[in-house]
Amino acid sequence: MDDRCALTDASGAPCPKPTAPGAPLALCAAHLAVALDWAEGEFGARGLLLSPCLACGGRVGVRYPGGTLCERCGWRAGDVPDREFGAPIVEVVYYLRFDDRIKIGTSGRLRARVAALPHDELLALEPGGRASERRRHEQFAASRIPGTEWFERSAELDAHVAALALGVDDPWAQYDEWLAARAAAFA
């Protein structure tokens, strides 16, 4: 087995350098560096951002030759979100718990809406507006408190909320990711 680099130069002469120790390909260290530079330019290099993303607060970025993007939302690191047109709007259906009841509502300005309501915790979110909210009200109509958007807890409603919350550590962080993705889409 030859321990020399497998590449040739422009004239076709074989590279005289030895294969880099432990390299997954039969390339010398110089050619591996060239391949790494190419791969990072093509696919990016993942690493910590110097400061949290200004759009979503994410800490991990992907570095490309043209700049570094937040891995979470795709916002260019260092760019200040343009608030000229106001904050992005993401309509969600929210599930709030207060005592032993759950409110199913919708809002495009979740923080302001939730702040105005009595609640113990935000249980879960799902993307959607009025039509989605109406479908959920119909789906759980058997446990609805008449004349309100509040529902008595039931096995069916609890299972639905649990399914929405599966894999979500914090619904507020999930909402922030959706806002950041929306802002990045219009940047």
**What is the number of strand segments?**
7
Task: Enumerate the strands of the largest sheet in spatial order, edge to edge or round the barrel.
Answer: 6-4-5-7
Order of helices and strands: HEEEEEHEHEHH
Separation of the first and last Cα atoms:
54 Å
Strand content: 15-25%
User: Which ranges are low-confidence, i.e. pLDDT below 50, for 5 or more consecutive residues?
Assistant: none
What Rg, in angstroms, do the CA atoms define?
26 Å
Q: What shape does the CA trace take?
A: elongated
Secondary structure: helix percent: 25-40%
Walkthrough of the structure:
The chain is 30% helix and 20% strand. It contains five helices and seven strands, in the order H-E-E-E-E-E-H-E-H-E-H-H. The strands form two sheets. It has a four-stranded antiparallel beta sheet, sandwiched between helices. It is an alpha+beta fold. It is elongated, with a radius of gyration of 26 Å. A hairpin with a 2-residue loop joins strand 4 (92-98) and strand 5 (101-107).
What's the short version?
With 187 residues, the chain is of the alpha+beta class. It is 30% helix and 20% strand.
Key words describing this protein structure:
4-stranded antiparallel sheet; alpha+beta; 187 residues; 20% strand
Fold topology:
Blueprint: H1 29-43, E1 45-48, E2 60-64, E3 67-70, E4 92-98, E5 101-107, H2 110-115, E6 121-127, H3 130-139, E7 150-152, H4 155-165, H5 171-185
